[in-house]
Each structure stands twice: as structure tokens, then as C-alpha cells.
Amino acid sequence: MIRTLVIPNVTYGGKGQDLMKDSYVDFLYKFLLGMKKERQDIFWYILLPKYDKTYVNQVSEAKKKLQFPNTGFFEIEIPRQPYNRIHFNVNELYDKVFKSRRFGVDLIFNHQPELGYQWSVLMKQKTHWGRAPMIGYSHFFEFKSTKWYGNINNNINGILEMEVCYLNTKEQKQIVLEEASETFNSDIIKKLDKKLKVFPPITFPQDVRTSKDGVYEKVIVWNHRTDPTKSFEFFIGATEDLWRQRKDFKVWIPLLPPSSGMSKCPYVITGQNETKRKYFDGLRKCCVGVNGEQNYGGWSIATDDGNKCGVPYVMFDAPYYKELNDGADFYKNRKELVGLLNKYLNEPSYRNQMAEQTIENLILNRNVDKKI
Question: 20 to 30 A Cα–Cα from 36, which one of 60, 204, 221, 334?
Fold first, then answer.
């Protein structure tokens, strides 16, 4: 049995937020389910956040979702972001996980590359199995374009400790190499180029569930975050242009904060995502989704959610979206986006044709049996 320690990237949960909505939990569930199809000789030790009694149910629900015959759990203190990107509690980890020597570690699966070097030091100096190889997955890079004060250099140092680190898209890999070259020499860039591997989103055919009767409403969905990294303001501008042309549609923005002035717009729908079931039921009623330009070159889990429900997406014309579905419709500017939205709202046959194309792309190109 290969004993693998899973280092988490938990940025959600606690303080009134639901851990089960954290994209990391969803990613890990799909990954473990896919690996189970391929082999049964791996045991996964999964680290999860330790919350007080107010939010303890969140951890229980995460355990239920990630519970397989070959998974075990340790609850530890995980700082809320951005502190989770800076440090972890070494003493607690050592005392709770390593000190007793009740289990061994053959492999480390690290979802926080920015802490990879610290983990490597801890394992090598404080444990008897310290030279276990490390593989990684980076869910997000804090590039200059995100305008966040990030840890890109720490990301690089952590990745250099790994055998391989997976990331979202070819475009994202290229940005990593370009930004790293401002600090690191050409030898390091060559090592990074070899270690960084693209791992696109995977789909389980049984998860593709469209509306039973094929009926949808004139609803445009933006199920992404409402922040600058997703070009949310650009999208809002396009819907305002569309509203001046016609008044027969709605825009559903599940993650729009109640305090936002957009929540008072006559055509905007908010919320309705309190549970996964309600969220997916809402998606199945949508006509079309929209993807904005992303300044960190990654694909979108929100798009994956909509695609599985049979919702076609109009996407910004960028390489990372074409990696996701090169047969979709793409726009370069606001005028093109408004024109495509009009087409989807006006032509049911075309909309349904693109919905079929979306599902076919999932089954043929992103099937778990091919990707794992």
C-alpha cells in the first residue's frame, strides 16, 4: 500500500462560510474517485481544518464526501486566507500527525506549492520518512496581473522541491515561466518547465445531467466570483447594453453579495445556491453562461458546473478557454458578446445545438477514463 499524505489548499469555510463550497474539496473528491477507478493500492491521509463547535458540521460533511475505504483524516488548525499561504502550525502537525509514528508516508500530494519548501524541511528534519517524494497541484497562482500581493517566488521554491506539479492550462504554465524568469536564472526556468504539467478538469459521464424535458428559461448565468480577476465589471456592462435593447431576460449571479447595488437591478437574480442541489437545478434552467477574461490564465470550475448541466458558455477569446472547449462561441469585445447573447436568446435551435456540443466535448475530451 502506497501511503500518501495530502496537504490541503483550504481557503473557504469557517466564519459562516461553507467548507463544502471550497473548490479544493470538490477537486479532491473527483480526483480520488478517478484514482479509485485506476488502482486500489494507495491510502490517502487527508488533512482537514479543525473548526470550533459552531462550524464543526462543515468538517463532518467534508469527511463524508471524501470518505472512501482508503482514506483517513487528521484535523489540524489551518489559518484563514491569506495566512494559510504564509505558514502552518508545525508543532501541532508534529504532535498530532508525526510524533506517534502510527503511520508512514511514502508520497506527499501537496496542494499548496507556496509552502512546499517548508513542508520539505519539516519532513526531512523532524520525521523518519522525510525523503518521501512530493508531487503537487496548484489551484491558483498570484500573478502580477491579479493585483494581489502574492507568493509567486514562494510558489517557485516549493515547486522546485517536487517531482512534478500540475496546474490548470498551458497558458497558465507560460505565465508562471515568464514571471519566474524575472527572478530566477535560466537553469531554474528549465527545471520548472519540466516539472510543471497541465492537468485539465475531468468529467464523470454520470455527473452530466441536463434538464429532463430540455426546457430552459431566458436566463444568462454568471456563476463565477464577482471580482476583477474574472472581468465581472465588463460582463455587467454588456448586460446593461443588452437590457437597453430588450427586457425579456434575467441574469443570475449566485455569488453576488447582498450589499451590491447590482442586486437591485430589475433583471438580476441572486442567491438560490444555498445547497448544491438547488444550485444545479438552477443551472439546468439557464439559457447560456458567460466567461470573462481571467488574468491568471486558468480554467473555471463554475464553467464545468454549468457544462455538466447542459448549459453552453460564451467565452472570452483566449487560449485557456479554447483548451476547455475549442468548439464553443468566443467573443473579443462587448459588442461581440452582446451579439452572441442575442443569438442564444433568439434562436432556441442554435442554443440547443451548442448545448449538445458542450456535452459532447465533456464526454469525448474530458472523460475521467482518459484524463486520470
Answer: 60
Name the burial class of residue 133, with classes exposed (0-12), middle (13-18) and buried (19+) by CB atoms within 10 angstroms of its CB: exposed
Residue among 181, 230, 120 nearest 253 (CA): 230
pTM listed for this prediction: 0.81
Q: Around Cβ 54, how many Cβ atoms within 10 Å?
A: 10
* Separation of alpha carbons 263 and 266, rounded Å: 8
Residue position matching grid coordinates 502574492: 150
Q: Where does the pLDDT of residue 145 fall: very low under 50, low under 70, confident under 90, or very high at 90 and above?
A: low
CA distance 28 to 22: 10
Dihedral through CA 35, CA 36, CA 40, CA 41, nearest 10? 30
pLDDT 10s digits, 126-136: 777 667 899 99
The type of residue at 62 is A
Any alpha helices (H) in the chain, and if so which ranges?
23-38, 56-66, 90-93, 116-126, 152-160, 170-180, 186-195, 232-245, 276-283, 301-308, 319-324, 334-346, 348-365, 368-371
Rounded-to-integer distance, Cα 285 and Cα 250, Å: 11
Of 28-32, 116-120, 123-127, 245-249, where does mean pLDDT reach its minimum? 123-127
Contacts of 27 (CB under 8 A, 6+ apart): 137, 139, 301
Q: How many CB atoms lie within 10 A of CB 96?
A: 16
